User: Which sequence fits this backbone?
């Protein structure tokens, strides 16, 4: 099915099941330990062996020699694979660094060997006996130092310009020119990267924690040099991804290689202290923002430049992205520069681009409002635009940022914010409020599904879509139930298997809308097939309450499958609506924070997000996506930083004790409001993404609240007490 | 793992490889390690009997096996999760003799005679424990990977408060411990949820505890 | 993790004797730090002596009017004990500020004192660390040192001791009781128990090989307002940037010990004479000769401000 004209009324609009806050259908499994993740396939793969990965101890250089003799003699060892013995390996389309290094070493903890043994304990012990001699070469590890060597990236738009930024900025009455930095971030999902590989002849089955089954299948095939048809990926449950599991990682490749060498199925999980440097991360940025406005607060010029680094062949963090679209202003520029850094591979993490970009931009907007003597909410409202500011004839499909801002301000009690910073105190605490706009583009991806009606009146949906905590199982079931006129408990959903139709997968907040649109397409076909079987006019048939009706004639849906299952398969593809209309999601974040006047410790007391993101398919799971993103935003604001050892070239705090993410005590009760919205330009579901919107702007809202509390502006994340303790007033 | 650091100096002594003492026989079924010529120690196994979810389990394990790996890889009780294997996340939380612990940081052989309750022992999809049902109702999870640990922890936290164990945020140490939102947040802080379901988890626990979140 | 043999000790003396006899032996109690380090190859014992079964898990009054805390008393039980909460609230507070509920349920009094540093370079066996591999150098110096020591450090090591409990015990003038392999016992004042790194950072305390901690004794209660102020970025489940253990008497005199600033709980008794003069004077004496790194110089300010906040809080509590 092709979606190339705006959606009109369709069965989803009935909202009997879709749009309802139903409990997740996978909840009973997840809460009882009966949802089996990639590494937990004892039934499917009994008696597998265990692989343990050996990582490079240098950041850049070459392996001079590997001595495996002691490891090979260690008890229980079945096989050891290194780049030398692995056979020819290619690099996957989506990987920047090789998953198995050697002789060239590209980054710290790049895998250099996998040791396979009978037991986990034996594999781990033997891995510690692998002796590798390296020749170190000098590398570049310091973004600030490499900034001036940064170049225009090979891919994507490196520079944009509208009007005359320089002139517009120079002529502005009120100006801001400030530098901001964001550090490297780790996805730190709770389930480590893990895979079990089993070969049958030349066919490989991989149970693996992966967000994008088809991408993964393709890259496994490319890496191993085998036909894609010979690879099967299975990923029914994924313990979090946030972009860290978009691509095939070393666990999958090394499980496959280890299994081939050991002639046994092999399970490989990346040990937590190894994950951070072995896998990908959100790259650090240095950002310069210049805003010029008239005295009455109209933005005349807005410029955003961003520098980030990656391994050779890698990509930049596109932190300027939202600045092209978020605020009005006649004179505009953005620039993106990429430096070569020999740190682990930088790549996508939740809302790549906007998450980092808004961390800086929304502080800058706060600073600008203060310079203008304006309320930050009003300043944003004044500079709203209903069209793409670069192409004024191109409207947004929906843009209700102003309503988000106003609704949020009202509900949060924004009028109680102290206009002058550092003036509110509650005992030992300095108290402040901050806010920020949220913005994230809406992406749509082709997505397919297969639906089957059986004689019991149950409908089974199969698609290689993944549920990484997003609620895919549930919203897909809701979509099928709505389309087929069945109650939710008559729908079975099977996900994450490459033998199912290719879906959008989970990434870029496109999964919810795109995958359900694919299910919609398949259900439209199934409805046609069922109507035909029942001798009813497919165009007139109404599917409701387990019956198919045309006029006075009503037939139980089960009758269509009396003689056998009715199966339909289709996918949803997209035309150029995304080009003709700018599709984005919007929101506003409000935060109240307090700062210990003596120690500078920061705690968040209240949080509210108001989101306008198209139809909300399940308000319960969508709300969870948003509060989760808000939580990650608090982490980005207050604690998360992969610390680079600029001499040795690695992330030093490479475990969950060193890389702090928020815990229960850091997060207050969170409120989320969804504006009632449908977006007919996005898909027949009229939904858009929301899981990434939730993180966009949060960190800046926290930082702005801290500023409001203390009067000290910190422009380098995370906002930690060491950066401002010297400026706090004496302890009374 | 740097192989060149194969030889190490610890606080008290220089390690010598592969020796056994007579006292090792104090553990029944202990198979003694034998030193290979090149200093590679052989695995040592030991028997351990414990009760898991009301069922007697007798295992013959490599002494290095953690309680977590014994549950997951030997008893196939994979509901208990390995998130970090270093006591930094809480995904492996189980209840041992009435107390919640990180099963990753304890050896299985140290639990002779222990009574272990895992997520599978609390309830099943057909017969949910009230805490499990509350997590579903309040969407107290997303990816589900930290969830079993959160639930085991939550169940134990309510017992800890009932047993008058104070916490970091308890105002008056001489008064009896009480259930309130700040207490629940502090006490649950050993269970990380990267999906960020905290606010909902708190609602779920508060409902079971009969307080306002 | 290398294979090891395992035994359950039956008496403290037998445990100590076995530890001395078996090469590469280590005691295991809660295991929360030892197993953590064994998994990454920092600790490689050949033999583990499980001391959990020893009859050392009680808290009993001493003849001097104090308490004897068995070495196997779990952190949770110690913090929850009514006598500790009433008479030594500082100790309860410090314990409860540390780790997580799960870890406190396992961690023991003795084991907590023997915690090893959380320096990330110590934890990464690829990196130079004099504590882990004497003579290999110190990667933390010139590296990421935000968490590291500002006083008492050396050119060999700038690691800090991570315990909260030990800081409170230092302020409370606790005594560590041990049994040695020959069966003899000794009492070590907590002030003398932990050592500074000097050029032997792999030595962290004065225990002899095989010597087992059997108890920690607390002297008779000292009263006063007792506060443990732990400063950290994350609200819970995090090691201290700095921590301040303070006891303030009604007359304004008091004691103060610091965590997160040195290779051991940091107390300078002479600094306590400065209490009447206020936080700056106390902090200046406490941190005399401090040599912070560029990455942790903020701790000097933070210590002073946290002391000031604690003094203010004590004053308020009294009023």
Assistant:
């Amino acid at each position: 099915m092709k979606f190339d004209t705006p959606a009109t009324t369709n069965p989803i609009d009935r909202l009997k099941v879709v749009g309802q806050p139903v409990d997740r259908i996978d909840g009973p499994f997840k809460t009882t330990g009966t949802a089996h993740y990639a590494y937990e396939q004892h039934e499917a793969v009994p008696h597998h062996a265990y692989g343990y990965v050996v990582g490079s101890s240098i950041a850049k250089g070459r392996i001079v020699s590997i001595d495996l003799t002691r490891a090979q003699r260690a008890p229980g060892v079945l096989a050891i694979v290194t780049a030398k013995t692995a056979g020819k390996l290619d690099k996957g389309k989506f990987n920047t660094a090789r998953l198995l290094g050697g002789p060239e070493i590209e980054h710290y903890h790049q895998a250099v060997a996998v040791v396979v043994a009978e037991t986990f304990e034996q594999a781990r012990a033997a891995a510690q006996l692998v002796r590798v001699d390296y020749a170190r070469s000098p590398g570049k590890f310091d973004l600030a130092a490499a900034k001036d060597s940064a170049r225009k990236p090979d891919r994507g738009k490196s520079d944009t310009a509208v009007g005359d930024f320089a002139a517009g900025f120079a002529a502005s009455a009120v100006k801001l020119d400030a530098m901001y930095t964001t550090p490297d971030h780790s996805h730190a999902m709770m389930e480590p990267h893990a895979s079990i590989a089993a070969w049958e002849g030349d066919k490989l089955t991989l149970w693996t924690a992966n967000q994008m089954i088809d991408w993964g299948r393709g890259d496994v095939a490319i890496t191993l040099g085998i036909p894609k048809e010979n690879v099967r990926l299975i990923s029914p449950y994924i313990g979090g991804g946030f972009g860290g599991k978009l691509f095939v990682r070393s666990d999958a490749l090394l499980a496959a290689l280890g299994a081939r060498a050991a002639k046994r199925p092999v399970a490989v999980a990346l040990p937590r202290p190894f994950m951070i440097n072995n896998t990908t991360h959100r790259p650090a940025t240095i950002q310069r923002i210049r805003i010029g406005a008239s005295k009455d607060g109209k933005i005349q010029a807005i410029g955003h430049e961003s520098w980030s680094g990656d391994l050779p062949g890698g990509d930049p963090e596109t932190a300027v992205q939202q600045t092209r679209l978020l605020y009005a202003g006649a004179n505009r520029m953005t620039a993106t520069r990429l430096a070569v850094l020999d740190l682990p591979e930088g790549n996508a993490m939740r809302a790549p681009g906007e998450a980092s970009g808004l961390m800086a931009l929304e502080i800058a907007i706060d600073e600008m409002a203060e310079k203008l003597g304006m309320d930050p909410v009003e300043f944003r409202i004044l500079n709203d635009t209903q069209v793409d500011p670069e192409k004024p004839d191109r409207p947004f499909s929906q843009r209700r940022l102003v309503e988000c801002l106003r609704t949020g301000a009202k509900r949060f009690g924004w009028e109680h914010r102290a206009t002058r910073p550092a003036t509110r105190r509650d005992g030992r605490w300095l108290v402040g409020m901050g806010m920020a706009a949220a913005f994230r583009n809406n992406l749509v991806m082709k997505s397919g599904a297969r639906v089957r009606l059986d004689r019991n009146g149950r409908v089974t949906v199969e698609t290689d879509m993944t549920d990484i905590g997003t609620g895919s199982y549930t919203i897909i079931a809701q979509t099928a139930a709505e389309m087929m006129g069945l109650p939710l408990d008559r729908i079975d959903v099977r996900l994450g298997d490459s033998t199912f139709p290719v879906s959008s997968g989970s990434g870029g907040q496109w999964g919810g809308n795109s995958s359900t649109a694919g299910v919609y397409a398949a259900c439209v076909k199934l409805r046609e097939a069922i109507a035909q079987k029942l001798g009813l006019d497919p165009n007139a048939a109404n599917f409701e309450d387990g019956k198919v009706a045309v006029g006075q004639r009503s037939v139980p849906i089960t009758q269509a499958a009396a003689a056998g299952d009715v199966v339909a398969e289709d996918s949803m593809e997209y035309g150029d609506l995304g080009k003709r209309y700018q599709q984005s999601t919007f929101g506003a974040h409000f935060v109240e924070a307090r700062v210990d006047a003596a120690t500078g410790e920061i705690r968040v007391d209240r949080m509210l997000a108001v989101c306008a993101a198209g139809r909300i398919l399940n308000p319960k799971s969508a709300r969870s996506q948003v509060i989760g993103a808000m939580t990650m935003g608090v982490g980005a604001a207050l604690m998360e930083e992969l610390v680079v050892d600029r001499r040795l070239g690695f992330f030093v705090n490479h475990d969950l004790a060193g890389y702090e993410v928020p815990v229960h005590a850091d997060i207050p009760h969170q409120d989320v409001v969804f504006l009632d919205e449908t977006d007919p330009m996005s898909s027949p579901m009229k939904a858009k993404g929301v899981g990434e919107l939730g993180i966009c702007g949060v960190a800046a809202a926290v930082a702005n609240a801290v500023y409001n509390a203390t009067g000290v502006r910190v422009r380098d994340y995370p906002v930690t007490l060491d950066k401002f303790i010297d400026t706090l007033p004496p302890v009374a | 793992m740097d192989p060149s650091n194969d030889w190490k100096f610890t606080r008290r002594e220089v390690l010598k490889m592969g020796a056994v003492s007579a006292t090792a026989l104090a553990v029944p079924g202990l198979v003694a390690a034998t030193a290979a010529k090149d200093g590679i120690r052989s695995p040592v196994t030991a028997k351990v009997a414990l009760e898991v979810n009301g069922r007697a389990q007798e295992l013959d394990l490599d002494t290095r096996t953690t309680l977590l790996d014994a549950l997951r890889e030997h008893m196939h009780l994979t509901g208990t999760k390995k998130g970090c294997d270093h006591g930094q996340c809480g995904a492996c939380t189980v209840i041992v003799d009435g107390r919640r612990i990180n099963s990753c940081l304890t050896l299985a052989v140290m639990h002779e005679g222990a009574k272990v309750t895992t997520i599978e022992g609390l309830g099943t999809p057909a017969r949910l424990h009230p805490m499990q049902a509350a997590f579903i109702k309040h969407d107290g999870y997303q990816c589900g990977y930290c969830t079993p640990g959160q639930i085991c922890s939550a169940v134990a936290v309510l017992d800890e408060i009932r047993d008058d164990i104070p916490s970091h945020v308890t105002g008056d140490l001489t008064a009896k411990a009480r259930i309130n939102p700040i207490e629940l947040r502090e006490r649950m802080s050993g269970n990380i949820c990267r999906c960020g379901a905290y606010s909902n988890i708190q609602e779920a626990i508060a409902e079971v505890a009969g307080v306002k979140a | 993790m290398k294979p090891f043999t395992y035994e359950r000790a039956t008496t403290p003396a037998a445990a100590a004797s076995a530890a001395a006899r078996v090469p590469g032996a280590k005691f295991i109690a809660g295991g929360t730090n030892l197993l953590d380090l064994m998994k990454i190859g920092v600790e490689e014992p050949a033999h583990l002596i499980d001391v959990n079964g020893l009859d050392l898990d009680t808290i009993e009054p001493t003849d001097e009017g104090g308490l004897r805390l068995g070495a196997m008393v779990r952190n949770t039980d110690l913090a929850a004990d009514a006598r500790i909460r009433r008479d030594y609230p500082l100790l309860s507070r410090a314990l409860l500020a540390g780790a997580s509920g799960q870890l406190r349920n396992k961690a023991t009094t003795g084991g907590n004192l023997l915690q090893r540093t959380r320096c990330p370079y110590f934890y990464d066996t690829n990196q130079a660390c004099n504590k882990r591999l004497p003579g290999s150098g110190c990667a933390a110096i010139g590296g990421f040192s935000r968490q590291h020591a500002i006083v008492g450090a050396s050119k060999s090591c700038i690691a800090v001791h991570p315990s909260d409990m030990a800081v409170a015990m230092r302020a409370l003038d606790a005594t560590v009781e041990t049994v040695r392999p020959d069966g003899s016992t000794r009492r070590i004042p907590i002030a003398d128990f932990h050592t500074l790194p000097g050029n032997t950072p792999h030595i962290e305390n004065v225990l002899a090989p095989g010597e087992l901690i059997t108890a920690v004794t607390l002297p008779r209660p000292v009263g006063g307002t007792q506060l443990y102020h732990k400063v950290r970025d994350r609200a819970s489940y995090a090691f201290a940037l700095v921590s301040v253990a303070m006891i303030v008497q009604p007359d304004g005199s008091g004691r103060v010990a610091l965590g997160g600033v040195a290779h051991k709980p940091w107390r300078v008794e002479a600094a306590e004479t400065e209490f009447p003069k206020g936080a700056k004077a106390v902090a200046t004496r406490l941190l005399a000769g401090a040599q912070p790194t560029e990455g942790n110089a903020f701790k000097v300010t933070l210590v002073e401000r946290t002391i000031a906040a604690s003094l203010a809080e004590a004053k308020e509590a009294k009023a």
User: Anything to note?
Assistant: The mean pLDDT of chain C is 97. Chain C is about 30% helix and 20% strand.
